[in-house]
Design a protein that fits this description.
Helix content: 40-55%
Strand content: 15-25%
Oligomer: single chain
CATH class of the largest domain: Alpha Beta
Number of helices: 10
Shape: elongated
Number of domains: 3
CATH superfamily of the largest domain: Histidine kinase-like ATPase, C-terminal domain
Radius of gyration: 49 Å
CATH architecture of the largest domain: 2-Layer Sandwich
Strand order of the largest sheet: 6-8-9-11-10
CATH topology of the largest domain: Heat Shock Protein 90
Mean pLDDT: 80
């Protein structure tokens, strides 16, 4: 079902419920008013009947009989009864209803009662007259009122049905108007392909409008996709170059060696060169696989002391020509550097940064420090090496990217990409501060 039809039906259903409640309330209120109004009329008739018969002693019998013939019945099925204190009917003995003694006693006790019996409304009134006390009970059927209520219910029913039809089509019209911007967005998104990810959806002036928010969200998604495609293309180009170099070297060495008969030492030299290139190729492929397959398996999570991991990394690289200085802050913060994570991955991440610090500082001293603040555990690794230009801070985390002044150093440019992904999997982030020819400082922040 299309969204506009679904919205129309939902709107119509909601309107139907509200309209039904309103019409039902009006009907019940009107019916209650009708009953009260008819009780008032019936009470007036009871007073008239009582006054009429109580004046009988002021007329001759012939005059009274003549008046009775002319006394009209103004209400449908009207029946009036008059009783004395002994519960005996008086004045009216023909065509009168016989009311139980309990009803008459209730009228005497309450002076006035109203009730419904067998589709008839009944009023009872207690009269005090100079000739004695009497009870007048009058009953009638509100045929006219009920007929009016029946007519009103038919009118309401047809009005209800017609209103629902009108509401559905109006709701469908407004739903079409509301959905139309979304359809435009769909049409524009349909034409965007991998080769046209630079296209963006138009955004209106009202920033808080939901349609604009949708356009902005899709534009952000397209931007991320464009960046991902560009990064993928860059990765493929760099990977091809990095993989082609050792393969070309291996093929060249083998072909040159096979052209002529060589001495044993020359064969050995060629094989050593081929082995080195093969090892480099194997290292690149291994790192690429590790980068592609790296994931934080929840089953491998454990509580890790980051100061212990840093100590292991420093000990691993302590045999290099650089002196590694480590400040653990044990006197103040011993045992407070724990996070949930994967020990092996964190070792690789810290090891890559420390290895780069040693390599790009020409084996000068390297300083490692672990500290705390209100939100984070901070590991700082600082060197006195070649430094990084500020324009390249974000690029160094791209696979195979190498800064301009690092070309004379061996490496594939994958280590920092691997490190950044591991840190991000642990909800951490990396901050860099560096100056060319003065050194760099990498600060890794893990949430506490």
């Amino acid at each position: 079902m299309k969204l506009k039809n679904k919205l129309s039906l939902q709107f119509t259903f909601l309107f139907a419920v509200v309209l039904f409640v309103v019409l039902f309330g009006i009907y019940m209120l009107e019916d209650s008013t009708r009953k009260v109004s008819f009780y008032d009329k019936l009470e007036d008739r009871a007073f008239v009947v009582g006054e009429f018969y109580f004046r009988e002693d002021n007329m001759t019998k012939e005059n009274f009989k003549e008046v009775i013939k002319k006394f009209p019945q103004t209400l449908s099925n009207e029946i009036a009864s008059i009783y004395n204190d002994q519960y005996q009917p008086v004045f009216i003995k023909e065509n009168t209803a016989r009311w139980p003694k309990e009803i008459i006693q209730e009228v005497i006790a309450n002076k006035k009662i109203r009730f419904t019996k067998d589709d008839q409304q009944v009023v009872g009134i207690y009269f005090v007259d100079n000739s004695g006390n009497f009870i007048v009970i009058a009953s009638a059927t509100d045929d006219t009122g009920k007929e009016n209520m029946k007519t009103l219910s038919i009118i309401m029913l047809f009005s209800f049905l017609i209103s629902l039809v009108i509401t559905f089509f109006l709701g469908r019209l407004f739903a079409t108007m509301a959905v139309n911007p979304i359809n435009k967005i769909i049409d524009k998104v349909k034409i965007i392909r991998a080769t046209s990810l630079n296209k963006r959806l138009p955004v209106g002036k009202i920033s808080h409008d939901e349609i604009n928010q949708l356009s902005i969200t899709i534009n952000n998604l397209l931007e991320h996709l464009e960046q991902s495609f560009q990064a993928q293309q860059s990765f493929i180009m760099n990977a091809s170059h990095e993989l082609r170099t050792p393969i070309t070297s291996i093929i060249a060495d083998a072909e040159i060696t096979l052209r002529n008969t060589r001495e044993v030492d020359e064969y050995k030299s060629t094989l050593v060169s081929i082995t080195k290139d093969a090892e480099r190729l194997n290292e690149i492929i291994g790192t690429l696989l590790e980068l592609a397959q790296i994931n934080l398996d929840r089953s491998e999570l454990q509580v890790i002391q980051l100061d212990e991991v840093l100590w292991e990394v420093a000990d691993e690289w302590g045999k290099s020509e650089s002196r590694i200085h480590v400040d653990y802050g044990l006197a103040v913060n011993a045992g407070r550097y724990s996070i949930m994570g994967n020990r092996r991955l964190l070792f690789i991440a810290l090891s890559n940064i420390l290895k780069n610090a040693i390599k790009f500082s020409n084996h000068k001293d390297v300083y490692c420090k672990i500290t705390l603040n209100a939100e984070s555990i901070i590991i700082s690794i600082k060197d006195e090496g070649i430094g990084i230009a500020s324009s390249e801070f974000q690029k160094i985390f791209q696979p195979f990217y190498r800064v301009a002044n690092s070309q004379k150093f061996p490496g594939s440019g994958i280590g920092l990409a691997l490190t950044e992904r591991i840190i991000r999997l642990h909800n951490g982030k990396i901050e860099i501060s560096s100056k060319l020819d003065e050194g760099s400082e990498f600060r890794i922040l893990f949430p506490r």
